[in-house]
Design a protein that fits this description.
This protein is α/β, with parallel strands linked by helices. About 30% of the residues lie in helices and about 25% in strands. Strand 1 and strand 2 form a beta hairpin. It is globular. The termini are far apart. Bound molecules: adenosine-5'-triphosphate (ATP). Adenosine-5'-triphosphate binds near residues 16, 38, 39 and 42. Adenosine-5'-triphosphate binds near residues 34, 36, 37, 39 and 40.
């Protein structure tokens, strides 16, 4: 279980996270949503141990993150960051293999099988000898998903182990650049991992994907959690208006198991005052 309690974090004197409260448990796909700059990536990076200058408490399975050795953290959690810019000419197989670096020699007996399995699951095995920087954006993202999967798995079979209390997966906009098929694949994989006991937290911008796959949504605004709970409760027109400034309708359709969020106001976003401000340049 992950407990984020009263976490605040500033860059210089600019507060970015303000008394953040969040609890996430294995078995649920938790999704962070919110407008640009709301603090989603910063929260994820703080939980990942990247930012250490926070105030408050982050407990992972009862242990304060501050007190956990870095190598122990790396064996417990895998992170897919936003905008990974890897320019070195590593092959696809080498990038996926980076997921295994955190483990000790005795834990790396099945490295090859796990890496092959992860590449096949993300449908990038055929690209394994290609130079990573030459791949398309969506292909690179699938390779990164394969890397984090390789980091999490302890056997070359998604269904073989129970990871409850042992593993955490942090995904920052994991489906960026992926086509519709691979978006579904990546999020079904995240759901399956959560069923295997992995604590999964993902940042998503797409309401339809969040509605289809999230069990619990945290809606962030100005560095704190504005609303949280199941999809039906959180993705309401007033919440979305408050956090994104957009009027939406939430529709239900007999052929769709989740609510559909549709925007009403595309034409009215270009207000005359905004245009006047632009004209000033
Ligand atoms: N290293 C940093 N130094 C200074 N300011 C930062 C840093 N990282 C983030 N910020 C600021 O913190 C705020 C929150 O950024 P963050 O990346 O967490 O937002 P986000 O909700 O993930 O947004 P997006 O949807 O655009 O990815 C922004 O105003 C950003 O400019």
């Amino acid at each position: 279980m992950l407990v984020v309690k009263d976490v605040s974090l500033s860059f210089g004197n600019v507060p970015v996270l303000a008394q953040m409260q969040l609890q996430a448990q294995p078995g649920e796909l938790c999704v962070l949503m919110g407008a640009n700059g709301a603090g989603k990536s910063t929260l994820l990076r703080t939980i990942a141990g990247e930012y250490k200058h926070y105030h408050g408490s982050i407990l992972l399975n009862g242990q304060e993150l501050h007190h956990m050795p870095v190598d122990a953290q790396a064996r417990q959690r895998a992170v897919l960051s936003q905008q990974l810019n890897l320019q070195m000419p590593f092959t696809v197989a080498e990038v996926a293999a980076m997921g295994r670096y955190a483990y000790r020699a005795a834990e790396r007996l099945y490295d090859k099988e796990i890496i092959t399995y992860a590449l096949k699951l993300l449908q990038v095995y055929d690209l394994k000898d290609r130079s990573y920087p030459t791949l398309s954006g969506g292909q690179q993202q699938r390779v990164q998903m394969a890397r984090v999967l390789a980091q999490l798995l302890e056997a070359p079979d998604l269904h073989a182990m129970d990871y409850t209390g042992k593993k955490m997966l942090l995904l920052d906009e994991p489906v960026t650049g992926m086509d519709i098929l691979h978006q579904q694949l990546a999020l079904q994989l995240a759901v399956q991992l959560s069923r295997q006991g992995v604590l999964v937290i993902a940042v998503l911008h797409d309401f339809q994907l969040a509605a289809a796959y999230a069990q619990h949504i945290f809606l962030l605004k100005n560095g704190h959690v504005y609303a949280q709970g199941p999809v039906d409760t959180v993705l309401s027109p007033p919440h979305i208006k408050h956090c994104f400034g957009v009027d939406v309708s939430v529709l239900h359709h007999s052929l769709c198991a989740y609510p559909l969020v549709v925007t009403n106001t595309a034409a009215t976003l270009f207000s005359s005052s905004a245009l006047q401000a632009t004209n000033a340049y």
